[in-house]
Design brief:
Blueprint: H1 2-14, E1 21-24, H2 30-41, E2 45-49, H3 54-68, E3 72-75, H4 82-96, E4 101-104, H5 119-147, E5 150-155, H6 168-187, E6 193-200, H7 206-219, H8 223-231, H9 243-253, E7 265-268
Parallel strand pairs: 1-2, 1-4, 2-3, 4-5, 5-6, 6-7
Helix pairs in contact: 2-3, 2-9, 4-5, 5-6, 7-8
This protein binds nicotinamide-adenine-dinucleotide.
Nicotinamide-adenine-dinucleotide (NAD) binds near residues 25, 27 and 128.
Length: about 280
Amino acid sequence: MILLFSVSDQMTAAKFLENKTAVITGSSSGIGLGMAKCLAEAGANIVLNGIEPAEQIESIRAEICKEYGVKAIYSNANMMKPDEIKGLIEMSEAEFGGVDILVNNAGIQFVSPVDEFPIDKWDAIIAIKLSSAFHTIRAALPGMKTRGSGRIINLASAHALVASPYKSAYVAAKHGIAGLTKTIALEVAEMNITVNAICPGYVLTPLVAQQIPDTAKARGITEDEVKRDVLLAAQPTKKFVTVEQVGAFARFLCSDDAASITGAILPIEGGWTAK
Ligand code: NAD
């Protein structure tokens, strides 16, 4: 009897996000998908977003519903387009009655010396990684204020704290998101809404895999040398951070235990920025 009580208690604690709704931009792949699964595991209904083909995302959506017993919907809103971003939040509120957790995660990367950096790539990186967070927050915050609670998590990077050559747009956007995080956190500090930035080191997702050839070209080295001497050289642990570790970190930030953590730029980067 005692054992049954304690198991049911643990299950309630594990489902602490039941009846909450999480919108995660760029959640059809990599870190975003990992966070979506971690929040669904804790009981949250999920709004997926990404630009992959609809069939690919439908199978991800269906799997999340089946695996975690939550509701999940999908929007292909383009994070470069303010109207579509507003539509994503409106759709989420209409479907679930509100957005309790907003995770700004969508991202792309491009690597080049600054004097050769294509202007359209600069504009896209700043739009998707920085301006989209302004637009989602602007649209979702009124509902959080009305309900008197909310969690906003911005996916920054170790590159919000330190720089690397050839990543001018990425590093500028990530430093920008750190500033945005601190500013909004101060604006809503007394409203039971927290705003934080998670700063991963290298996680072996499609985004990182795709930049390896460009980095090799820019530095004149092989792709294996990029992994060993460029990517993991920065991380004292010599291990890639995992998607699951970032997901668990995000889930903790959504808990009541994390209510006093706000305006924080939080590294999860194997000691990279300790150097
Ligand atoms: P990924 O390439 O695996 O996933 C990127 C996601 O963004 C996909 O779901 C994609 O559909 C979506 N996306 C891209 N352009 C979009 C657009 N215009 N509109 C809507 N969605 C769009 O990348 P990832 O490695 O999982 O990166 C996710 C976030 O984590 C990014 O913000 C990235 O900067 C950050 N990050 C990644 C690492 C890493 O090592 N992978 C490290 C630090 C920070």
